[in-house]
Amino acid sequence: MHTNNILITGNYRSGTEYLSNLLNGISNVTSEMYATNFLRYYHKSNSITEFKEMIATHLYKRKNITLPFEISNKLIHQHDLSSFMSQLYFYLSPLDKVFIDKEQLAWKNFDFYKNIFPSGKLIIVVRDPRAVMNSFRKFTTHIGDYYLTSCLNSLGLFQFIEQNVYAHDTIVVKYEDLMTNSKETIFKICQFLNVPCQEIVSHEAPKLLNNKVWRGNTTLRGLFNFENSNNCWKTELNSHDIRLVDLICGKYYSKYGYSEFDDGHVDFQISTNNFSEWVADQFDYYYRTDNGICKFPLE
C-alpha cells in the first residue's frame, strides 16, 4: 500500500490542476485530478451502495476502468471505507509510494479524509481572490452573478487555514510562488512529501500527463504570461466586484502578500438587492456568521 496519501485542494481557478500535473512528474508519486472524487461522492450519496456505484461510474467514465469485484466487495459497511479506499488507490497506482488526489473545495471534508487516512496530508493552494474571481467569471458555465460567490469560497479557505487543527500535516502553497519561484516551491513540497526533489518542467514548457500534452484550462493563447494572467483582474473586473472582494477577503491580504487595489472608492457596502436568490443567500449567510463558504454554485 502507499506510504503516503495526499489531498490537494483549494478554491476553483487557483492552480490546483497545474500543481497536480507538476507533481505527477516526480518519481514514486502518482498525482491525479479527481482520481476517484470520493470525498464529493461520499457526501452526496445516501448509502454505501450508492457511494460505491458513484465511484464505479466515475472510474469507468473518466479512466475506462472497471472497479474490480475483489475491491468492490470489500466495501460493505461504513467501517470498511479506509480499507476500500487504500486498496483502490493501490490498484490505480501499485508502484508509487505517494498517491495524490486533487479535489476542489474539499477542505471542509479533511476531517473525514483523516479518518480514512490517519497519516494523510493536505496541500492547499491559495491565489489572490480577485484573480480567482476574474478567472471563474470567464470560465463558469453558470450565467449571471454566480461568480461573485468565489470571494466567499476564498474567505472560507483563509478561515480554514487559520483554524486548521491539522496544521502539522498541511502545507499552504501560493499560486503566485508556484509560478514565479517554481523550483524553490516544488522543493518545499517535496520535503513535505518526503520524496527526493527533482527538476520539473517549468510552466513555459508543455506538461506531460498520460502521454498527452497538458495545455491547461486558460483563456490565454500562445506563450503563457503569468503577469498578464494574474493581473488582468485589475482591468477586467469592475470597481464593484473588486471592492466586494476587498471587503470580504481584505483582512487576509497582508498575510499572503496581496495589496488592496486603490481605485478611489473609500466606502463600500454590500447590497444583495440585485443578486440572484442563491447568491443573495450566500452573502446573507456571510452577514449572519462572518463565515465564508465551501461550495460550488447552486449547491
What tags apply to this protein structure?
299 residues; alpha/beta; Rossmann fold; 5-stranded parallel beta sheet; two-stranded antiparallel ribbon; 7 strands
| Order of helical and strand elements | EHEHHHHEHEHHEHHEEHHHHH
Which architecture would the CATH scheme give at its second level?
Answer: 3-Layer(aba) Sandwich
Total number of distinct structural domains:
1
CATH fold call: Rossmann fold
Give the CATH level 1 class: Alpha Beta
Report the sheet-strand fraction: 5-15%
Strand order of the largest sheet: 2-3-1-4-5
Q: What number is the mean pLDDT?
A: 87
Number of strands: 7
- Indicate the low-confidence ranges by residue numbers: 201-214
From the N-terminal CA to the C-terminal CA, the straight-line distance is: 35 Å
* Alpha plus pi helix count: 15
- Per CATH, the superfamily is P-loop containing nucleotide triphosphate hydrolases
Structural class of the secondary structure composition? alpha/beta
Helix-strand layout with pairing:
Blueprint: E1 4-10, H1 16-23, E2 29-33, H2 38-44, H3 48-63, H4 69-72, H5 81-92, E3 98-102, H6 110-116, E4 121-126, H7 129-139, H8 150-163, E5 170-174, H9 175-180, H10 182-193, E6 207-209, E7 212-214, H11 226-231, H12 233-236, H13 239-249, H14 253-256, H15 277-289
Parallel strand pairs: 1-3, 1-4, 2-3, 4-5
Antiparallel strand pairs: 6-7
Can you tell me about this structure?
The protein is α/β, with parallel strands linked by helices and 299 residues long. It has one domain: P-loop containing nucleotide triphosphate hydrolases (Rossmann fold), CATH 3.40.50.300. It has helices at 16-23, 38-44, 48-63, 69-72, 81-92, 110-116, 129-139, 150-163, 175-180, 182-193, 226-231, 233-236, 239-249, 253-256, 277-289; strands at residues 4-10, 29-33, 98-102, 121-126, 170-174, 207-209, 212-214. The strands form two sheets. A five-stranded parallel sheet has the order 2-3-1-4-5, sandwiched between helices. Strands 6-7 form a two-stranded antiparallel ribbon. A hairpin with a 2-residue loop joins β6 (207-209) and β7.
